[in-house]
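Table S2 (text version). Query chain:
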Amino acid sequence: MQQKTDKHISIKTYILITVIMLVSLSLIAVFFVSFFFVKNRLTSRVVNGIAADSKTISEDVKAYGTEELINRGRLFYEVEENAKKNNGRIMIISRDYHILQDTDNSHTDRLIISRNIMRVMTGKIDKMINHVDNNVEVINPIESDGNVMGVVISTASLYDTNTSLMKQFIIIGAVILLVLFIDILIIIRIARGAVSDLEDINEQMIHTVQGNLQEGLSRQRFSETQEFADSFNEVLSKLSTIDQTRSEFVSNVSHELKTPITSMKVLAESIIENEGADVDDYKEFMTDIVDEIDRETKIINDLLALVKTDSQNNQMNYEESDINNMMETIVKTVTPLAKQRSIDISYEGYREVTAEVDVVKLSLAISNLVENAVKYNIESGWIRCSLNADHKFFYIKVADSGVGIPDDAKDKVFEKFYRVDKARSRDTGGTGLGLSITRNIINAHRGTIKLYSESGKGTTFTVRIPLRQNKAKIQEIKAEESTSELKTEVKDA
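Corresponding structure-token output:
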């Protein structure tokens, strides 16, 4: 049965749709707002012109009297010209609702009564403006001594105005569509550019899944994808390092396990071939075989310890422990080894320290440091161990007068199977795993380990571990450290 795959919209399509919709809606909104604004403005201009002309006519009728209209005097022709100018119609109505003049010459001397005319005629309103289809109608009163003698009705067509407006906005609409089309092309190009970075990242991830850990992401165009690329390259670098370390680890394990087996095989073959050997020879061969078996056992035990401490699921049995007692026990255990080489070993505890630790694992870690101080020391040298604490951490220091560590080896001494002096390590029985185990254990305690060394002038290891391992205390410590680092950055800035 095939698994049903979810369909997802691509980022490029999402960007295109979103931006096109926003741009389109914006342009449409601008178009219609502009259209209605301009239309209202032009209409108001026409209405104001007609109203002004109507007012002028009403003043003239008041001044010259209605006889000018009835006798077709100068005022009559002025009204006719005014109507032609506005491409409209003008009617002058008397107080008794008779049409004194109609520029259409269709209703002269007839009665005309309507609600709007009556409202103006009775003085209820000063002026009436009506919009009917593509026409505008303005009714102005003709007043004399506070009395309404009649009204002037001016009507004008808005057809020409609206037609001209529509033509202009058709052109504007075409320009907007052209701009929208150009915007879409630009948006498509930008979207492709934005998504191309993600496509490159996706392609590289596919290569990584297929096992290619060498090729990182190239320079990106956008800051967000560049940050992602930098993080990805950093992860890729760590994966590559882990893969290389794993390969080296497998190779080293194979070599370390193979060496004692090869030695035992050679010794066993020597026993088989040397049939006339006496008992002492056989004992010597068997002793050598036992030594190789012990060496093999030590390597295997160290490997098991390394695997346990290196695991993310490493179980830590934290309990309140006396660190002074732990240090005294370690020094007492190692003292016989130190005396064999006339090495002076001492311990000084500056205060009583109790802390939440896995005392078994931590003892193993510190024992490795002290034993290494014995193994890689000079004859009649010295070892100084100390313990101190503050309100957050306790500090362990192991210093020696040994051969020291070269600068080019300081970053490698904590690596698995790494030995500064391979010949010396084999003579002392070292496996090259002790410091790796130590670092893992200290990391599991949320602590740190640092070394200070100079070739031929001894080595000093310092260990710092929190006194309390509960999460609340650890978070508090980390928060204070972050604040301290932030203050330092602000000062530096």
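Notes on Table S2: The first strand starts at residue 88 and ends at 94. Residues 319-492 form a domain with the Heat Shock Protein 90 fold (CATH 3.30.565.10).
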